[in-house]
Design goal:
- This protein is an alpha/beta fold.
- The protein folds into two domains: 216 residues, Glycogen Phosphorylase B (Rossmann fold, 3-Layer(aba) Sandwich), CATH 3.40.50; 182 residues, Rossmann fold, CATH 3.40.50.2000.
- 44% of the residues lie in helices and 17% in strands.
- The strands form two sheets. Strands 3-4-2-1-5-6-7-8 form an eight-stranded mixed β-sheet, with helices on both faces.
- It is globular, with a radius of gyration of 21 Å.
- The chain starts with a strand and ends with a helix.
- The relative contact order is 0.13.
Length: 415
C-alpha cells in the first residue's frame, strides 16, 4: 500500500533535541522505514523549503513550504496549514498524473496540526485516517507547575481530528485512558501500540571506551538528560537535585550532561528556557557540574548512553518516553517522574526509579541510592536491557500495519 505520513512540524531528519525535535521525529522516521521494509511506499510530508530526500528504500521525506522558512513556535504554525495542505494536494496530483492512479491508500497523521490536515485529505481522497497525538493539550493543562495553558484552539483541534479519524493510536494504556476520560473518545477507536527502539543501534557498549571518545573522565559519575529544552521536561528539577546530592556526598565527582537544544539558535522560547536553566545553575554554584551540550544525532547517542551511569527524565508529562527506552536498551537504568508513559515503561526498583515530578530532594535521594551502589547499578542496567528487548520496532510496525489493513478491509466491505 501507499502511505501518506503527515508530520507537519517535525521532520524525521532533524537532530534529536533541537528546538523542534524529539521523540516524535524519531517515531515517524523509524516507523516509516519499517513500513517501507514491508513493501509499502511511504511519503513523509513535513514543513520546510521544498525538497525530496530519501529516508530509506521506498521511503522519502517531502518538505513543503508553509509560512516563513525559519523555525517558528509550534503554536504559530496553524495559520499556515492551508498553504501546506495545498502543497500536499499538488504533490498528490502530480503523482496521479505520473502513475495514473490515486497517490495514497492511507493517511497517517502525527500531532493535532497534522490531524487537521489529514481530515481534509481523508475526505478528498476517500481513504482511512489514522492519528497519533504524541502529546495531548488537556493533559498538559492539568500540570499546574508549568504555569502555561495550551490554547482553546488546540483543544478544539484535537477533538475535531480525533472524531474525524478512523483509528487513534495510543502509546500506552495510560494514554488510552486519557483519551477516554478527558476527550470522551470511544475506546473502540483507540489502538494501544507502544513505540519501539532500534536494538542494533542502541545496545550495551563498553563504558570506558565511550568516555574516552567523548572526553569524559571515567572516574567521575555521570548523569544524562536527553530531550528538548522546555519547562515541561523538568530539567530545573534535575539541576536543583544536584545541590542536595552535593550536600549529602560532597566528595562525589558527579557531572550532569544535558543533550538538547540548539545552542547557536535564536528561537525565543528555547533561548529563554536555556537562559533560565543556566541562571539556576549559576545561582546554585553548579557551573562545573552541569554541561549543556546542544542537540546530538541519533547515531551518536549510543555513546552518550554508554558513557553515562544513568538517564534522568524528570518530566512533568510524557506520552511514552522514547529516550528512556533507548537508554534502557543500552543497559542504563532510568530515574524518571511517575507520569504518563514513564510510569508504564520504567519499573520502579527494577529498571530504575520513579520520583514525584518537581521533587528535587526525592530525586537526589534516588541518585544517591543508585550511584552509591555499583552492584545495584549493574543489576538495574541488565534488567533495563532485558525489558527494552520487548520493544523492537518490527513489533510496532506490524501492529500499525494491521490497523491499516483492518481499516482498508472495512472500507472495502462498505462498513
Amino acid at each position: 500500500m501507499r502511505i501518506a505520513m503527515l508530520s507537519y512540524h517535525a521532520s524525521p531528519l532533524a537532530s534529536l533535541g533541537s528546538a523542534k525535535s524529539g521523540g516524535m521525529n524519531v517515531y515517524v522516521g523509524e516507523l516509516s522505514r519499517q513500513l517501507a521494509a514491508r513493501g509499502h511506499t511511504v511519503d513523509v510530508f513535513t514543513r520546510g523549503p521544498h525538497a525530496e530526500r530519501p529516508l530509506g528504500e521506498r521511503a522519502r521525506v517531502i518538505s513543503l513550504p508553509a509560512g516563513p522558512d525559519e523555525e517558528m513556535p509550534v503554536q504559530d504554525l496553524a495559520a499556515f496549514i492551508p498553504e501546506f495542505l495545498a502543497g500536499v494536494r499538488r504533490f498528490a496530483a502530480d503523482e496521479l498524473a505520473t502513475t495514473g492512479r490515486q497517490a495514497y491508500d492511507v493517511v497517517h497523521a502525527h500531532y493535532w496540526l497534522s490531524g487537521l490536515i489529514g481530515m481534509h485529505l481523508k475526505q478528498e481522497w476517500g481513504v482511512p485516517l489514522v492519528l497519533m497525538f504524541h502529546t495531548l493539550g488537556l493533559v498538559k493543562n492539568r500540570i499546574a507547575a508549568l504555569g502555561v495553558q495550551e490554547s482553546a484552539a488546540r483543544i478544539r483541534g484535537e477533538r475535531r481530528a480525533m472524531q474525524a479519524a478512523d483509528a487513534v493510536i495510543a502509546a500506552t494504556p495510560v494514554e488510552r485512558a486519557e483519551l477516554q476520560w478527558l476527550y470522551e473518545l470511544h475506546s473502540d477507536k483507540v489502538h494501544v501500540i507502544p513505540p519501539g527502539v532500534d536494538l542494533q543501534r542502541f545496545k550495551p557498549l563498553e563504558k570506558a571506551a565511550a568516555c574516552k571518545l567523548l572526553g569524559w573522565d571515567c572516574a567521575e559519575r555521570h548523569l544524562l538528560f536527553v530531550g528538548r529544552i522546555e519547562a515541561l521536561k523538568g530539567i530545573d528539577t534535575l539541576i536543583r537535585s544536584l545541590h542536595f546530592v552535593r550536600e549529602a556526598a560532597p566528595a562525589w565527582p558527579l557531572r550532569v550532561h544535558i543533550v538538547g537544544g540548539d545552542l547557536e539558535g535564536s528561537q525565543h522560547a528555547l533561548d529563554s528556557e536555556l537562559a533560565r536553566l543556566r541562571a539556576v545553575t549559576r545561582a546554585l554554584g553548579l557551573q562545573d557540574q552541569v554541561d549543556f551540550l546542544g542537540s546530538r544525532s541519533q547515531d551518536t547517542l549510543p555513546l552518550y548512553y554508554a558513557a553515562a551511569d544513568a538517564l534522568v527524565m524528570p518530566s512533568y508529562s510524557e506520552s511514552f518516553g522514547m529516550v528512556a527506552l533507548e537508554a534502557m536498551a543500552c543497559a542504563r537504568p532510568v530515574i524518571a517522574s511517575s507520569v504518563g508513559g514513564l510510569r508504564y515503561l520504567v519499573q520502579d526498583g527494577l529498571t530504575g526509579y520513579h520520583v514525584r515530578e518537581g521533587d528535587a530532594p526525592q530525586l537526589a535521594g534516588r541518585i544517591l541510592r543508585l550511584l552509591g551502589d555499583p552492584a545495584r547499578l549493574e543489576r538495574m542496567g541488565a534488567a533495563a536491557r532485558r525489558e527494552a528487548q520487548r520493544y523492537a520496532w518490527s513489533r510496532t510496525a506490524d501492529a500499525v500495519q494491521a490497523v491499516y489493513r483492518q481499516l482498508l478491509a472495512a472500507q472495502a466491505a462498505g462498513r
